[in-house]
Amino acid sequence: MYGPRPNTPLRRTGRPRPPADRRARPGAGGPVSDRPGGARPVWPRAQSGASDPVPSYLVSTGTAQAQPATGTVCAVHDLVKTYPAARGRRGAPATPEVRATDGICLDVRRGEIFGLLGPNGAGKSTLVRQLTGLMRPDSGGVTVLGHDLVRHPERASRLIGYLGQESTALDELTVSLAAETTGRLRGLTAADARAERDAVLGELGLTEIAGRPLKKLSGGQRRLACFAAALVGERPLLVLDEPTTGMDPVARRAVWAAVDRRRAERGTTVLLVTHNVIEAETVLDRVAVIERGKVIACDTPNGLKERVAGEVRVELVWRDRAPLDVPEVAALRASARESGRRWVLRLGPDEARAAVAAVTGGAAFAALDDFTLATPSLEDVYLALGGDATKGLVKS
Amino acid sequence: MRVRGRAGIEQEQRQVTSIVPGHAVTGPVRATADGRTGTPGDATAEEEAGPAPLAPRARVFPSLAAVYRAQLSRARVARIPLLFVATFQSVGIMVLMRGVVDGGSEARAVVAGSSVLVVAFVALNLLAQYFGQLRAGGGLDHYATLPVPPAAVVLGSAGAYASFTVPGTIVTAVAGSVLFGLPLTHLWVLVAVIPLSGAALSGLGAALGLLAPRQELATLLGQLGMSAALLLGVLPADRLPAPMGWARDLLPSTYGVEALSRSFDAHPDWAVVALDLAVCAVVGVLSLAVATWAYRRAAVR
């Protein structure tokens, strides 16, 4: 039997008291505004002594945070879409009427990376389909750059660059031809489409695989190729539906760098659909949390997290099972969310301290495999807001 | 704030978001973000300045050419189903029929029917499947979110599928003529038969694929259409019972078969050949128009 290493360093790097060495190096602390415009600050490395603990794709998109956001690029008000009830057939049970978007209101400002966060089935994609003119809302309005897209859905394609979740239309094309054809269909001349294709493929590091069909690529590469196609033929608003799904860190970094560049150089606005809370915290300027077709909160990631700032997340991982014979552990169980060996608790600071003391001492210690204390993430915000995060949200 | 036990990779990643001093992140953002969800009445500076200019539409012919070229390139990846299967099938049928039929008008019907069957297999069956799959898999969204005229997508795809039939049809017609001892003199008529029956059948295939409510139905309809072309095209007309004869007259591929079959005469009646091909052309125009309408309908749900 092994307990947790007794010499595990217990560090506190709390927000109110940043470590001295960090404070001494302004500019190393994230997207601080004294950076030259256009430069992409990289998040500082954690100090755990591991070789490179911070994934390189977590690049801050801080450029526009220094610019004042002006004007509304995309305004959505009272958007409602109801899927009719389906009658049950043999083998398929009847489904009741579903309000996929239920009175959604949003404002996306120029140059912003605005996120729609929510679990699968929350209504994100339905909302996006209505924004891009693919689906007519039952009621409500969508205005993009002064154009009423409910009345003129055909204008959406001339204002918005869209990356959907599916690549069926491009699967059998080579990366190069997929990008070029998409550019042509966005109204570029042949020469312009070729030039933009080359530029975008170079920018995203796809030049080497330009001659390979999308079908033969890995999921992440294919996604990156589709992203490349979405960028050819400039648009002032990009709507990206889970763009980094399946991508490795290098590809993710390429995506966010490309987004950042367009934002810095052309003021491009990005509407991003994600169910990845880590990505949401890292790249978004503002995020709307969607649950069952409604916006349950809309703020900056940090603004949202401040709503639950009084709480601490405690994660306990037991070796086999929780030692319920220890009274302190049995008491904790009431407030824990259990999944297998893992317990997640949201506690006040004092309770958290007591809980850690209880499990790191005495009989419970031998049964403990790992534990973490952390400030709340967007996932905790989502839970606190009443969302049902046992499904759908991803942390990676 | 974070106190850590044994570290896993996940925790290391998550640390990124919490180790940064809070004020450094929130400061600049909070200056511009007030956290409200918007209402239609606010922040209308953009609207007051007037709507932003729209990017240009893609014009019909350049985008048709782009779709055609892209679709044509798919033959490199899906060579076997798009180019070879239909040819093997038709040549196989002719070899089979060689034992049953010995020359005369029946041999012409077999060769002409087998050749046009290649067109039916690819342009009708495979195109119906392709559009059915594209529609079911959300692939139409890609085109629907680009400013491209629906006709360009439908005509470009139909044209490409009609083009895939060219090598197979020529190989089948030549092989059949040799096999059954028919003259090769007037095979140049394929120059008109392939595009016109191709237009008719690919229009039909596209319309079926885009109108079918489910992908499986699109596949089924494509298969049925091809089977009908096989049965009613390859079997000599005068041996069919009357109702089958009427069905034969309704099928657009029949007129391609008739045109090709007549060209095996020593002195073909070119007026009748032209009439047959004109029927193909009319069906082609109509079915492509229906397919374009079906595409519009399928793209915006």
TrEMBL record, chain A:
Subcellular location: Cell membrane
Name of this protein: ABC transporter ATP-binding protein
GO molecular function: ATP binding
Keywords from the UniProt entry: Antibiotic resistance, ATP-binding, Nucleotide-binding, Transport
InterPro entries: AAA+_ATPase, ABC_transporter-like_ATP-bd, ABC_transporter-like_CS, ABC_transporter_ATP-binding, P-loop_NTPase
Pfam families: ABC_tran (PF00005)
Keyword ATP-binding attached: yes
Membrane topology according to the record: Peripheral membrane protein
UniProtKB/TrEMBL annotation, chain B:
Keyword Glycosyltransferase: no
Compartments where found: Membrane
Region (Disordered), start-end ranges: 1-51
Transmembrane segment boundaries: 77-97, 109-131, 152-180, 186-210, 217-237, 270-295
Keyword Membrane: yes
InterPro entries in alphabetical order: ABC2_TM, Nod_factor_ABC_transporter
Top-rank taxon, per record: Bacteria
Pfam families: ABC2_membrane (PF01061)
Keywords of this entry: Membrane, Transmembrane, Transmembrane helix
Main subcellular localisation: membrane
Membrane topology: Multi-pass membrane protein
Chain ranges of the ABC-2 type transporter transmembrane domain: 76-261
Protein name: Transporter
Annotated source species: Streptomyces gelaticus
